[in-house]
């Protein structure tokens, strides 16, 4: 297979610094320059909290140099399809760098692979498939357990390099290979790299876009196809650009930013589109916060999310991967379908009320909503940074939670961090100590847990019609179990604050 | 790796018809089906794979076979029967709740079980159930929906459950992309798009006919006709039984 890493789009440079500067200078331009640029290229600038924007007309290019300008997403797909230039709408065969699957969709994908390519067929590349059991692990459900066995058998048969197996369900720590939530594990194990194409049999595969790569979710049939061929036919999406500038207030987290955006453009606002996140605020986010941002792109219908790679990205990857990678950046002349601008200093903590991720409301306006429980976990809100954030609120309060507060670390590594990393300003206390003092439940075995309900014996599953504030990603009817359950999606700050009062609570009650 | 494709000029992929659904494999161009160098696609293995695929295809055809009031023509261009109406943003958790995802769609008996649970996640405000408790198939041929049908998860179990239940088609105002793509790739249900909000025009239990070739839906109960957006080139893919079956049927996969 031709190596895609050596390919360069004509109008881009591979030298890190200059590309970064070009990318940044476009972002930090003053508003007068921006509006000049807006008039020239014809795309529409929308500021936050104003009425929903209309889609702009794309102007035909008039010069050769403008013709080859591409967005990040277009460039990644161009390189992966070995084409010099792509525009949105093009359908291309893309070389897949990583395919991920888990216990829920893996068996079905394997079934299709064997059916279509033959019982004795071998996967296209034993090192590019990453199999991560994470959804229904700590359960007595026989089929769920069997599905992990199916993955194991396949990995043994195919000699798959990356299989994060679990056998002893009674003690996750007895399984050295087991990681937990796939999207967090992919990042922690160094499988996410700038410029690459990562596909996964899970809608939140878009999380990996935080690393400046093209990452999206696919179904079993498409995955079966990739297993056999290492390629997939993809349509190039147009890009919506979200520019977030300003210093991140101390009471806001990336979850608030993405809830703001989803509330702005609605649940289908980004259908078939890429969402590109830039701006000084985005640059100030650490990798886990960027992951949270990209994670919920699918909740707006988005195909993929991207954050340009920078020193934060490289530093994160330093000790995690030795595979060479080549970041790409949107050209200055690249055309975007729409651009949204947010002054982050004006934003406030948000929730998504039942039963839709775009049912946005200010947390402080929901302060009369009595809650029954709080859930902190999942790929969206169960990473180390998410727990550190929750711990910060508990520390600031010094009081105990008023409702059952469930903590489900996403991976083994996150679990270990909770017990080892001192929380800043806590006099050496770790997250776990702070959680214990606040009366939270003991951090549970790492997995997807109750984010999506799961088998009836899943820890923290909503088995009654209760009100739950959750750091997860969806709140459709029945999402966490009971159809009449009321789920308020929130940031870890807001979730912790709500746990302390027993009502939906703006974290400024404790953080200011 | 010995992967060779001659990528056809007009090769397109399936999306909702607001973006015009098109054929992923263009029959007029030659496309060598990719093979892995370590995989020996002997003629025996290929014919076994094809016959297996055909056998499974006959289990998975998206026809409403069990309902006495529904029928399809041999050409699969007409669907007739009762319709079941749902609203906007019906997400995959409502189509097939997560607790049933332990069922593996590629296993025939578990495939059938998935059909039993189709749309079981709809809230209790839907007094009429899509599949009656105790039944294994639905009596509805067509699901009529509002906007953004199938949003949420990438789980292929969603279109599979609908197809396994016996439904032939969904007619929605719009679709979420992964659900649409999965419907075409599996060939389980036709993801048709209406012009306008049929979910407000029709009621559960209305008798409808979908004329696929003419892209229209007739509601016999109300006597009204509605235009549908053309399924375009995604149609033959679904009719063949999904992307792999289509590739074999049209000779995209070399048979010997």
Kindly describe this structure.
- Chain B: It comes from Arachis hypogaea (Peanut).
- Chain B: This is 3-isopropylmalate dehydratase.
- Chain B: It is an enzyme of class 4 (lyase).
- The complex is a heterodimer of chains A (512) and B (256).
- Chain A is built from 18 helices and 18 strands.
- Chain A is α/β, with parallel strands linked by helices and 512 residues long.
- In chain A, strand 13 (350-352) and strand 14 (360-362) form a beta hairpin.
- Chain A has helices at 16-27, 31-41, 64-67, 72-80, 106-117, 142-158, 182-188, 220-229, 254-265, 280-284, 287-295, 311-318, 378-381, 384-397, 412-420, 431-438, 492-501, 508-511; strands at 45-47, 91-95, 98-101, 129-131, 162-163, 197-200, 214-217, 231-235, 239-245, 274-278, 304-306, 338-343, 350-352, 360-362, 373-377, 405-408, 467-470, 486-490.
- In chain A, the strands form four sheets. In chain A, strands 14-13-18-17-15-16 form a six-stranded mixed beta sheet, with helices on both faces. A five-stranded parallel beta sheet of chain A has the order 1-12-9-10-11. A five-stranded parallel beta sheet of chain A has the order 5-4-3-6-7, with helices on one face.
- The longest helix of chain A has 17 residues, at 142-158.
- The N and C termini of chain A lie far apart (56 Å).
- The radius of gyration of chain A is 22 Å and the shape is globular.
- Chain B is an alpha/beta fold and 256 residues long.
- Chain B has a domain at 78-230: Aconitase, domain 4.
- Chain B is 25% helix and 16% strand.
- Chain B has seven helices and eight strands; from the N terminus they run H-E-E-H-H-E-H-E-H-E-E-E-E-H-H.
- Chain B has helices at 43-60, 92-95, 108-116, 157-165, 177-186, 234-240, 243-249, and strands spanning 71-72, 78-85, 140-145, 169-172, 190-194, 207-211, 216-219, 224-229.
- In chain B, strand 4, helix 5 (177-186) and strand 5 form a beta-alpha-beta unit.
- In chain B, helix 3 (108-116) crosses helix 4 and helix 6 (234-240) packs across helix 7 (243-249).
- The longest helix of chain B has 18 residues, at 43-60.
- The interface between A and B is large, with 69 and 63 residues.
């Amino acid at each position: 297979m031709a190596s895609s890493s050596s390919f360069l789009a004509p109008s881009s440079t591979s030298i890190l610094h200059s590309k970064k500067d070009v990318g940044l200078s476009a972002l930090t331009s003053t508003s007068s320059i921006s509006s000049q640029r807006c008039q020239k290229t014809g795309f529409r600038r929308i500021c936050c909290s104003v009425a929903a924007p209309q889609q702009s007309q794309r102007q035909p290019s008039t010069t050769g140099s403008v013709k080859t300008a591409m967005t990040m997403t277009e460039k990644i797909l161009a390189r992966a399809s070995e084409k010099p230039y792509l525009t949105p709408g093009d359908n291309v065969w893309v070389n897949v760098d990583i395919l991920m699957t888990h216990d829920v969709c893996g068996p079905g994908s394997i079934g299709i692979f064997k059916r279509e390519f033959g019982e004795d067929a071998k996967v296209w590349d034993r090192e590019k498939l990453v199999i991560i059991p994470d959804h229904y692990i700590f359960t007595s459900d026989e089929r769920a357990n069997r599905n992990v066995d199916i993955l194991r058998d396949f990995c043994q048969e195919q000699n798959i390099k990356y299989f994060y197996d679990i056998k002893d369900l009674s003690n996750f720590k007895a399984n050295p290979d087991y990681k937990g939530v796939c999207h967090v594990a992919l990042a922690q194990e160094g499988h996410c790299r700038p410029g690459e194409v990562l596909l996964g049999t899970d809608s939140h595969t878009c999380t990996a876009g935080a690393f400046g790569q093209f990452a999206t979710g696919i179904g079993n049939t498409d995955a079966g196809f990739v297993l056999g061929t290492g390629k997939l036919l993809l349509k190039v999406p147009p890009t919506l650009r979200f520019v977030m500038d300003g210093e991140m207030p101390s009471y806001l987290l990336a979850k608030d930013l993405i809830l703001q955006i989803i509330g702005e453009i609605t649940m289908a606002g980004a259908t078939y589109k890429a969402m590109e996140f830039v701006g000084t605020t985005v640059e100030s986010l650490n990798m886990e916060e960027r992951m949270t941002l990209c994670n919920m792109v699918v909740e707006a219908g988005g195909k993929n999310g991207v954050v340009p790679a920078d020193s934060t990205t490289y530093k994160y990857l330093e000790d995690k991967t030795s595979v060479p990678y080549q970041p790409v950046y949107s050209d200055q002349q690249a055309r975007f379908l729409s651009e949204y601008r947010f002054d982050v200093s004006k934003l406030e903590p948000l929730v998504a009320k039942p039963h839709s991720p775009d049912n946005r409301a200010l947390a402080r306006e929901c302060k009369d909503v009595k809650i029954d429980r709080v859930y902190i976990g999942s790929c969206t809100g169960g990473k180390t940074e998410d727990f550190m954030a929750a711990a910060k609120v508990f520390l600031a309060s010094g009081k105990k939670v008023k409702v059952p507060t469930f903590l489900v670390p996403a991976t083994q590594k996150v679990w270990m961090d909770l017990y080892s990393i001192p929380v800043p300003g806590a006099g050496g206390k770790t997250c776990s100590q702070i959680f214990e003092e606040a009366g939270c439940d003991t951090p549970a075995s790492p997995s997807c847990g109750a984010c999506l309900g799961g088998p009836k014996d899943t820890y923290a599953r909503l088995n009654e019609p209760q009100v739950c504030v959750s750091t997860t990603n969806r709140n459709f009817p029945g999402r966490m179990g009971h159809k009449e359950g009321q789920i308020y999606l929130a940031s870890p700050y807001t979730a912790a604050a709500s746990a302390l009062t027993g009502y939906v609570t703006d974290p400024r009650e404790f953080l200011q | 790796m010995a992967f060779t494709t001659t990528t056809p000029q007009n090769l397109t992929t399936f999306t909702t018809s607001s973006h015009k659904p098109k054929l992923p494999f263009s029959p007029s161009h030659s496309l060598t089906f990719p093979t892995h160098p370590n995989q020996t696609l002997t003629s025996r293995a290929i014919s076994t794979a094809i016959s297996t695929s055909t056998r499974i295809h006959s289990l998975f055809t998206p026809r409403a076979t069990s309902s006495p009031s529904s029928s399809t023509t041999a050409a699969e261009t007409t669907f007739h029967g009762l319709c079941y109406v749902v609203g906007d943003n019906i997400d995959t958790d409502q189509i097939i709740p997560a607790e049933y995802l332990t069922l593996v769609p590629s296993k025939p008996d578990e495939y059938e079980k998935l059909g039993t649970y189709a749309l079981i996640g709809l809230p209790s405000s839907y007094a009429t159930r899509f599949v009656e408790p105790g039944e294994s198939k639905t009596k509805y041929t067509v699901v009529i929906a509002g906007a953004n049908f199938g949003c949420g998860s990438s789980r292929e179990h969603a279109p599979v459950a609908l197809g396994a239940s016996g439904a032939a088609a969904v007619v929605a105002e719009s679709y979420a992309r992964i659900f649409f793509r999965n419907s075409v790739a599996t060939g389980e249900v036709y993801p048709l798009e209406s012009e306008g909000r049929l979910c407000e025009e029709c009621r559960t239990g209305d008798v409808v006919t979908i004329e696929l070739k003419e892209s229209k839906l007739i509601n016999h109960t109300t006597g009204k006709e509605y235009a549908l957006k053309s399924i375009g080139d995604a149609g033959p893919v679904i009719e063949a039984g999904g992307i792999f079956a289509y590739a074999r049927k049209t000779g995209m996969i070399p048979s010997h």
